[in-house]
Every structure is written in C-alpha cells, then in structure tokens.
Amino acid sequence: MYRKSFGEWTFDLVNYVFLSLLAIATIYPLVYVLFASLSDPTLYMQHSGILWKPLDFNLRAYKLVFDNGTIMHGYVNTMIIVVVGLCLNILLTSLGAYALSRKCLGYRKPLMLYIVFTMFFSGGMIPFYFTVKGLGLANTLWALIIPQAISAFNLILMKTAFEAIPDSLEESAKMDGANEIVILFRIMLPLCMPVVAVMLLYYGVSHWNAWFNALIFLQDRSLYPLQLVLRELLLQNDASSMASGAGSGEVSVIGETLKHATIIIATVPVLLIYPFLQKYFVKGALIGAIKG
Questions:
Q1: How many CB atoms lie within 10 A of CB 249?
Q2: Is residue 210 in a domain?
Q3: DSSP 8-state assignment for residue 169
Q4: How many structural domains comprise the chain?
Q5: Maximum CA pair distance of the chain?
Q6: Residue 270: inside a domain, yes or no?
Q7: Sequence-ordered list of residues with C-beta below 8 angstroms from that of 260, at least 6 positions apart, any chain
Q8: How far apart are CA 20 and CA 15, in angstroms?
Q9: 149-196 pLDDT, tens per residue?
C-alpha cells in the first residue's frame, strides 16, 4: 500500500489551505452583499467592518425593489433580450458552423480567415453606432440582440465540434433521404449537446451582463435592461428614484441596502442556472483541444 511522504503531505496541506483561503476570498464578497441586503438599513449604516450575519433580518430593501417599476421593467427587458437573443444565437451559430464544417464548401479557408480576422480587428465604436442607427435599430431592444447574434469564437468552437463527428453518420443519413436541415437539427446538434450548453452559457451570460450597448443605443428609459438600471443605481448613487416606496427621510438610510438587494437579484439567476450546465461545461469547452 502506497503511503505519502512527509513532503507530499505538506504539499497537499499547503494546497488545501491556499485553495480554501482563495475560495473564501472569492465567495465572501457575495455573502457580504447578501447579508447587507437582508440587514436593517439603520443598523447597517452604523456598522463598519466584516459582516458575519444580517443585522436584524429585514426584507424592506427587497420589497422596495420588487415594488419599483424601473427595476422590474429592467428585469423584463433583460429576460426578453436573453431569451430572444439565445434563440437567435444558437440558430445562426449552428447554421454557420455546420456550413463551414462541410468539406465540400468552396472557399472555406478564406471564409475562416475572414471570420478570425474579425476577432482581432473591428471598425470601432463610431462606425458600429452609425451602422446600427442606419438600420433603424437605435432605441429598440433589437440593437442589443442583432449585432451580438454571432460570436466568432463560439462559431469556431461549434464548427470544431461538428468536424469531430464521423462523416459516416452524415452519409448514412443521406442514404435514408435526409437533407442538410434534418442532418443538422436531428443528428449534429443532439450529438453536440455539451457544446450547445457551453454556447447557452457564454451567450446567456453575455446578454445578461451587457450594459454598454444599451447605454449607447437606448434613450427610452422603459427599454433599459437590468444591468443599466443597476449601473445608474451604483455609479450615480441615485437611490431616490429606486426607493419610490420609501419616505423622504428614509431614502438616504435605505439606499445602501437597496443597492445590495438589486445586486443580489441581478446575480442570482445566473448562479442558479450554472450548476445545471456545469456537467457539460468542461467537456464542451475542451472540444478540439486534443488532437489525434
């Protein structure tokens, strides 16, 4: 029976301690925000230092968040962007990746070089703005969806996954009378579900966290996504418009806990979805990493 040496035990112990401290340093900021959002506003304003638990458990901040029309409109807008955007992302990325993975496609290498070129060089923000505005997408949610319809990195990742599927499957399907659409949606995509899960995570998180394009293209506040509302709340320190259900003297007190409650509400959906995709994530992300 193999026994670890003193050096191996020491090495493992140092690793465990280091990784535990790293995990605490990573998790605690979120735990602090959670405790702060559940604290009594008056006690929290008087507190300084580390929070070990909520200060006199209080849900007042969450009640104001859910009663506030601006935040709820932002939440609905973000959900629309994520759902519609993901459908468009997966559809267009899979179509493009399938076409580029076919060996019979003419000029495949020049097309791939052109796609890779866009990963490193772009026209810049001003041409991008005028393009979106010229298409009539400005001040609409489509300005946050259509320009982000395909990511070159994700396209290459899915193309690599399609190329790893044996050609014999495609040949057998064609012998049975299947066309390209049937092959893609009934053979290729079901076999590449780990990659599809990675696409959902990459695209979904990108849509959920996006705020810069909204800042550029949206003038109508009713179209603001949640992250842009959160940005205004945190950077401009404007809690008065958010705490519409609080009294005039209560706004300055509850403002800090209101910010923390909004952060938690904006973060929790992604944290809840990730564990369901985690089992696919490593496998999908490593597609094409090993050759042979």
A1: 7
A2: yes
A3: H
A4: 1
A5: 76
A6: no
A7: 33, 34, 36, 37, 61
A8: 8
A9: 998 888 998 898 888 888 888 888 888 888 888 888 888 888 888 888
Contact predicate 41/256, CB 8 Å: yes
Q: What is the pLDDT of residues 20-78, one digit of tens each?
A: 999 988 888 888 888 888 887 777 777 777 888 888 888 878 888 777 777 788 888 99
Mean pLDDT, the chain, whole residue set: 82
CATH number for the domain that contains residue 82:
1.10.3720.10
Cβ(94)–Cβ(161) below 8 Å: no
- Residue 77 included in any domain: yes
Tokens 């946050």: give the residue. Answer: 144
What are the φ/ψ torsions at residue 118 (nearest 5 degrees)? -70, -15
Please name the residue ranges forming H helices in the chain.
Answer: 6-37, 41-46, 60-67, 69-101, 108-120, 125-134, 152-163, 167-175, 180-183, 189-191, 193-209, 212-217, 226-235, 251-285
Instruction: Please state, in angstroms and rounded to a whole number, the distance separating the CA atoms of residues 149 and 88.
Output: 6
Q: Which domain holds residue 117?
A: 68-236
- What would the two tokens of residue 288 be? 């094409």
CA 212 to chain centre: 14
Residue type at 119 in one-letter notation? M
Residue among 269, 102, 116, 97 nearest 196 (CA): 97
Evaluated on CA atoms 280, 286, 288, 292, the torsion sign reads negative
Residue type for 10, please? T
Confidence of residue 17 (pLDDT cuts 50, 70, 90): very high
Q: Does residue 289 lie within any of the structural domains?
A: no
Cα gap 214→39, rounded to integer Å: 32
The pTM of the full predicted model, rounded to 2 decimals, is 0.77
